Amino acid sequence: MADAKTSLGAGQQSGEPIEKIAAKIGIPDKAVLRYGKGKAKIDLDYLATLPERDSKLVLVTAISPTPAGEGKTTTSIGLADGLRRLGVSSVLALREPSMGPVFGIKGGATGGGKSQLIPAQDINLHFTGDFAAIAEANNLLAAMVDNALHFGTVNLDPRTVEIRRAIDVNDRALRTVTTGLGGRAGGVPRETGFDITAASQIMATFCMAENLEDLESRLGRIVVGQSFDGTDVTADDLGATGALAAIVRDAFAPNLVQTEEGTPAFVHGGPFANIAHGCNSIVATKAALAMGDVVVTEAGFGADLGAEKFFDIKCRAAGIAPAATVVVATVRALKYHGGVPREELEEENVEALRAGMANIERHVANLRDVFGQRAIVAINRFSSDTDAEIEALRSGLDVPVVLATHFAEGGAGAEDLARAVLEAATEPAEPHFAYDEDMSLAEKAEAVVKRVYGGASVSFGKVAEREIARLEAGGWGHAPVCMAKTQYSFSADQKLLGAPEGFDVRVREVRLSAGAGFVVLITGTIMTMPGLPRRPSAVDFAIGEGGEILGMH
Q1: Which CATH class is domain 131-250?
Q2: Cβ proximity of 353 and 392 under 8 Å
Q3: Would you say 95 and 77 are in contact if contact means Cβ atoms under 8 Å apart?
Q4: Is the peptide bond before 119 cis (omega within 30 degrees of 0)?
Q5: How far apart are CA 26 and CA 89, in angstroms?
Q6: Neighbours of 346 (CB within 10 A)
Q7: How far apart are CA 240 and CA 129, in angstroms?
Q8: Who contacts 124 (Cβ-Cβ below 8 Å, separation ≥6)?
Q9: Which of 322, 277, 272, 313 minimizes the C-alpha distance to 295?
Q10: Closest by CA position to 252, among listed 149, 129, 152, 371
Q11: Which pTM does this prediction carry?
């Protein structure tokens, strides 16, 4: 039964040799580019030779979470292991963790209990260096912008510069900074800021690219600001495209690791779902689809955030669609949405759970009615859950509800869930979206707010309204919208729990992610640079006598 994330220290399993894991899905040894023990990248030239396969994609999403999360990654891993136990050739396609949450409040993102990725410590920290490469490319572009301003080599209005620097640490002090100080030697002073790497334009662009050629083209399209006459200035205009592509070239090859039970897992790319589009890279997802009969992937946070963007942004661009969607639910999250304080979530409260059921009912209805999905609810059981609470959850929904105990039992605890998924994923997958491409940006935002969130309206601040008009005049009206909002509520107010109605979502800032091909609409108090909590997870870290890392949650 699932509990809070476990420490990953001495005794962490090393797993099978990575070449053996690759061989399970037909990857020859020559295409395995090893990165130390237990992890590798897969050669892009080899991936380009793979034919399409009649495989099925299964999406794992969740209800609106508590601050600790509800075990979506753990469930994805358990499901993939459960499918293998049933004789199905399953492959995982997941996001890379950001070190921001690892040292912040949520801890690691490699699963938990007996449903984990390995080597977990490597994956949660530096892994194969992808995040570092993405941050360096982003920061080179920012440096070239400031260099162009200093020497006046490009007609760029410093008041319009949109590119911000990136770092993979939660640091609220960097949200707004002034650069270029120090007189003539310092450059052109201007106000700017940092985004966490997972929210950077380079990360979004990286994850939406189909191949290296597409990646380089997308990097060149990134808009860094406007000229004094109002035209867009791009990375191509700065001459930065080739250098950016060179920095992220090796990172673009997808990473292969394994679960503790030896299921192959592609872990690649890591945009946040509350401030970015929340999906792993298209290249890794398509690699998995070319190698497995069933591919299990996930979208960040609740279905209103990650799943909506998975369908409206990733599926639309990549031409893919899930055959079924799993919605992860926990007793504690439903009690949370029923009004139970966080410190009392482990106490039995069937009445509050029933009050919180409106949250999962809306998520399930959205997946079925808006996105045309066959949904299965997976109850990720915790040791504090009582039989009465489990029964109240199971009996309150009109879709298949399966109790999953993969945290305690590994793939064996997810076999019932695997059977339910296979039963649901029998029909051909067809993509459904919350809005049409030919709608205006404001209409697309309104469609998401009304059809997915259950709200009444969307409004725009004056600055956001002007930027929407400018982007549409510049030909960006066709782009999908990427709503940046809190993960804790259907609304933009994290205090409105359950399934609120009649609210307005106010867009205060608009950012074009030209390389990724979508427009980010920032709502409420959401920040593209998170802060650390009062007591960050970082204070629990230590190095053990054998050199192992202790305290990683």
Answers
A1: alpha beta
A2: yes
A3: no
A4: yes
A5: 11
A6: 16
A7: 21
A8: 8, 97, 99, 102, 108, 109, 110, 552
A9: 322
A10: 129
A11: 0.94
Q: Which residue type does 510 have? A: V
Structure tokens at 296: 């299990």
Where the chain has pLDDT below 50, the residues are 4-12
* Phi, psi dihedral angles at 325 (to 5 degrees): -130, 130
109 — phi, psi (to 5°)?
-135, 50
| 3-class state of residue 325 by DSSP | strand
The C-alpha atoms of residue 229 and residue 284 are separated, in whole angstroms, by 41
Residue 212 is encoded by which pair of tokens?
């290296």
The token duo for 22 is 């690759």
Listed residue (490, 488, 520) closest to 507, CA to CA:
520
Query: What is the reported pLDDT for 13?
Result: 56
Q: Identify the residue whose tokens are 């662009």.
A: 205
* Helix and strand totals (H; E) in the chain: 20, 24
Eight-state DSSP code of residue 251: G
CA-to-CA separations, 427 to 291, 378, 402, 416, 472, in angstroms, rounded: 20, 20, 20, 20, 38
SS3 76: helix
Q: What pLDDT, on a 0 to 100 scale, did the predictor assign at position 1?
A: 54
CATH topology of domain 443-523: Formyltetrahydrofolate synthetase; domain 3 (3.10.410)
Helix (H) / strand (E) containing 207: helix 201-208
| pLDDT tens column, 472-529 | 999 999 999 999 999 999 999 999 999 999 999 999 999 999 999 999 999 988 888 8
Length of the chain: 553
pLDDT recorded at residue 184 = 77
Alpha-carbon gap, residue 345 to 129, rounded angstroms: 38
pLDDT at 9: 39
Distant-in-sequence, close-in-space partners of 35: CB < 8 Å, separation ≥ 6? 41, 128, 255
Pairing of strands 177-179, 190-192: antiparallel
Domain coordinates of the chain in residue numbers? Answer: 131-250, 443-523
pLDDT at position 507 is: 96
